[in-house]
């Protein structure tokens, strides 16, 4: 159980996302999770061992470390990534629910059901409209909120994004104001700035996706209002074209959502 | 053998769960298992090495650490995750038994072996009760063992061979406390989900039973 499992779960959601959503997912996995696992964890690996204070007083180092790092950067990022990935599960659950309903219809032998077999239902890609649009949009909204909250928490807890080389500590049992030295401060600052920058890119992608969905919604509404006066065939042609475009845009990622699709 | 095994197990369970059951599986995966593996495990990794007492007496640190942490938080957390996920296996076994029976008799005995009705409903309800029971037991255990959910940064120890009352410092107490509260919160969330699933199932099937009886009376 590790980040790979998250990748499998979210890969299934990928099929039903917009193009911007797919870019967001790629950025998340390559520039955040992979960097966290491959690089950042090593940089912060020896953080308490190499946190050195200019005193022999036992306990002073522990207390000072706890005072300056209530929660480690690396843990905060791990939590941020988990929270930011979770709203996508809402979409996965909604899709699974729709599939379940369609399967039920198919089993009952409903005439309205246009599928030839269960496999087709399993493979079908749902368009983002109706209630799925609301679920998808709220998931993006929650993603934005979580990203912003964590960025703010980071800034608030560490007084900015720079890691100082030296910290002055006077917490008990340190006998007086003691100099404590952080390990690898420059490397940590570089990675912190990198993760913050990628976080900001993800926020911008989410905002863009939100605007795109809202624009699509209002456009569809105005088209529907306009087309209700014209013939219905015209609207179907437009929708088929849109469908084909969406099929072309979606990539060949065939990861199925583990468990959620059955 | 690692947490991946538990993940595969729970994915199998997901197939035979209700909607609330699937939300429970998602919460266990994302907020408990993943947080444990990705974040919490590393906080407690060097807890013994970083536990420091203000004394040079050999053995004093060991004895004090053992006195204050009979079972480490992280081990209790892992045990809790395993125990809480296991009752779902009862449902998987029951469905497998049903499918086996159908194969053995070579005829369709059930409308759908995975549908929650009859005996499978009882098994499912029992698994829910067990899950909730384990969650509560572990929460109470945490509370009793560690005097609440707080982790102090300093503990005073006077166990032999420490010559007098000695100050011992715990590493990363604030970070540990944050994750402990996170554990408690997700535990409570899972308890609420289990209880609502329990009441939903009981309500649904009592209504079904009542309606059936009512229809029979009408006829």
Automatic annotation (TrEMBL), chain A:
Residues 146-213 form the Connexin cysteine-rich domain. Its main location: other. Residues 42-75 form the Connexin N-terminal domain. The chain crosses the membrane at residues 23-40, 77-97, 132-158, 191-215. InterPro entries: Connexin, Connexin_CCC, Connexin_CS, Connexin_N, Connexin_N_sf. It comes from the Eukaryota. It is found in: Cell junction, Gap junction; Cell membrane. The keyword Membrane applies. Keywords: Cell junction, Cell membrane, Gap junction, Hearing, Membrane, Transmembrane, Transmembrane helix. GO terms for molecular function: gap junction channel activity. It is a multi-pass membrane protein. One of its GO terms (cellular component) is connexin complex. GO terms for biological process: cell-cell signaling; gap junction-mediated intercellular transport; sensory perception of sound. A connexon is composed of a hexamer of connexins. Belongs to the connexin family. One gap junction consists of a cluster of closely packed pairs of transmembrane channels, the connexons, through which materials of low MW diffuse from one cell to a neighboring cell. This is Gap junction protein. It comes from Oxyruncus cristatus (sharpbill).
UniProtKB/TrEMBL annotation, chain B:
It comes from Oxyruncus cristatus. Pfam families: Connexin (PF00029). Residues 134-201 form the Connexin cysteine-rich domain. Gene3D superfamilies: Gap junction channel protein cysteine-rich domain (1.20.1440.80). GO terms for biological process: cell-cell signaling. A connexon is composed of a hexamer of connexins. Its main location: other. It comes from the Eukaryota. GO terms for cellular component: connexin complex. It is found in: Cell junction, Gap junction; Cell membrane. This is Gap junction protein. It is a multi-pass membrane protein.
């Amino acid at each position: 159980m590790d980040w790979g499992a998250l990748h499998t779960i979210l890969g299934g959601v990928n099929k039903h996302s917009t193009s911007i959503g797919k870019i967001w997912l790629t950025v998340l996995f390559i520039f955040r999770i992979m960097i966290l696992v491959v690089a950042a964890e090593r940089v912060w690996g020896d953080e308490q061992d190499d946190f050195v204070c200019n005193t022999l007083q036992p306990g002073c180092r522990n207390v000072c470390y706890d005072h300056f790092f209530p929660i480690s950067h690396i843990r905060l990022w791990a939590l941020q990534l988990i929270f930011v990935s979770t709203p996508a599960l809402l979409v996965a659950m909604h899709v699974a629910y729709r599939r379940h309903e369609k399967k039920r219809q198919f089993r009952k032998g409903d005439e309205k059901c246009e599928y030839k077999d269960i496999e087709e239902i399993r493979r079908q890609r749902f368009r983002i409209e109706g209630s799925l649009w609301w679920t998808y949009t709220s998931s993006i909204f929650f993603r934005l909120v979580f990203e912003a909250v964590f960025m703010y928490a980071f800034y608030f807890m560490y007084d900015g994004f720079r890691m100082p080389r030296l910290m002055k500590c006077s917490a008990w049992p340190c006998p007086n104001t003691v100099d404590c030295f952080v390990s690898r401060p420059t490397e940590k600052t570089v990675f912190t700035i990198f993760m913050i920058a990628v976080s900001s890119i993800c926020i911008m992608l989410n905002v863009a996706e939100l605007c795109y969905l809202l624009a699509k919604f209002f456009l569809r509404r105005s088209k529907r209002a306009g087309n209700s006066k014209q013939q219905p065939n015209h609207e179907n042609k437009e929708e088929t074209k849109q469908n084909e475009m969406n099929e072309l845009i979606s990539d060949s990622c065939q990861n199925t959502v583990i468990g959620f699709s059955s | 053998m690692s947490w991946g095994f538990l993940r595969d197990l729970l994915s199998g369970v997901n197939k035979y769960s209700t909607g609330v059951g699937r939300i429970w599986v998602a919460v266990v995966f994302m907020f408990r298992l993943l947080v444990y593996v990705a974040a919490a495990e590393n906080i407690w990794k060097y807890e013994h090495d970083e536990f420091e007492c203000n004394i040079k007496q050999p053995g004093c640190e060991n004895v004090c650490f053992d006195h204050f942490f009979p079972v480490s938080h992280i081990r209790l957390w892992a045990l809790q995750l395993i125990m809480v996920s296991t009752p779902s296996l009862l449902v998987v076994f029951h469905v497998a038994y049903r499918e086996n029976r159908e194969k053995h008799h070579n005829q369709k005995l059930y409308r759908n072996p995975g549908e929650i009705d009859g005996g499978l409903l009882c098994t499912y309800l029992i698994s829910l009760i067990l899950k909730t029971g384990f969650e509560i037991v572990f929460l109470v255990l945490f509370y009793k063992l560690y005097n609440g959910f707080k982790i102090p940064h300093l503990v005073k120890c006077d166990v032999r061979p420490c010559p007098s009352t000695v100050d011992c410092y715990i590493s990363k107490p604030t970070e540990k406390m944050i994750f402990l509260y996170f554990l408690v919160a997700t535990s409570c969330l899972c308890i609420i989900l289990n209880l609502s699933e329990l009441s939903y199932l009981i309500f649904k099937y009592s209504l079904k039973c009542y309606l059936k009886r009512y229809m029979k009376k009408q006829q």
